[in-house]
Each structure stands twice: as C-alpha cells, then as structure tokens.
Amino acid sequence: MSSLQMLPEGQEAPDVNVAWEDQERINQFSKLNSRLSDLEDHYKEKQNQKEYLEDISTEIELIDEDELVQYKIGDSFFWIKQEEAVEKLEKETESTESDIHDLDDKMDSLKDEMNDLKAKLYSKFGNAINLER
User: Fold this and answer.
1) Torsional sign, CA 61, 62, 68, 74
2) Residue 33 and residue 36: Cα distance in Å, rounded?
3) What are phi and psi of 121, to 5 degrees?
4) What does the DSSP 8-state code read for residue 63?
5) Which residue, of 62, 94, 97, 127, has the fewest CB within 10 Å?
6) CA distance 81 to 33
7) For residue 15, which phi and psi values (nearest 5 degrees)?
8) What's the alpha-carbon Rg for the chain, to the nearest Å?
9) What is the pTM of this model?
10) Cα angle value 33/111/26 (rounded, 5°)
C-alpha cells in the first residue's frame, strides 16, 4: 500500500513529534496567512478604486465649471456642479489613499508576525514543514 507524500521524490519526511504549542503556532500561521490573503485582495480593490477616481477626476476637470455632471452617491446619481464634483472626488481619493496606507500597515504587521512564527517553526521542524505561500 502506498502513502501520499508532499515532499520531492527521494526525500523522506523525518518523524517529528508536534507539541501542542507547535500546533498552536502552525494554526496561528495559517490564520495569519488567510488574513493576509484577504487584505491583499482588499488592497488591490482599493488600488483599482484609487486609479478609477483619479481617471474620473481628470475627465471631470476638463468639463466647463458651469456645467452640471452626474455624481453617484450610494445607488443614485445626482446632478451637481463640476467644481463640487471635483471636490468630492478629491475627498474620496484622499479617503481611499488613507485606506490603502492602513491596509499596507496591517499587511506589514501580519508579515512580521508570520516571519517570527516561520523562524520558530523552521528552527524546530526544518524541511519537515512548508510555510511558503
């Protein structure tokens, strides 16, 4: 009967006893990895939103200041003056940039925590564990 292994061919897994605290570290790493993946997705969304807002701002700035433009608030569109739309877009862009900065800080914090766990787990288990993404 053959057994499934996730190691490269010719390499055998050493028998390693996993203590409760080690299992807790592995579980914590897994949770952090999942959270990091979610934050990275959210970060990409915010980056796309920022690019979209910047493109819209550029387009609206080309319109006459006296003209009305449709501006989306929630699920509805309202007619507002061009300069008011530019101001609102600038505020939204600043808010999005702030969100991006916050997400970046959170991701850095998670990565630091994951690196600490990696160091502890790799020092104990060596090649018997794979913590790479």
Assistant:
1) negative
2) 5
3) -70, -40
4) S
5) 62
6) 46
7) -75, 120
8) 25
9) 0.78
10) 45
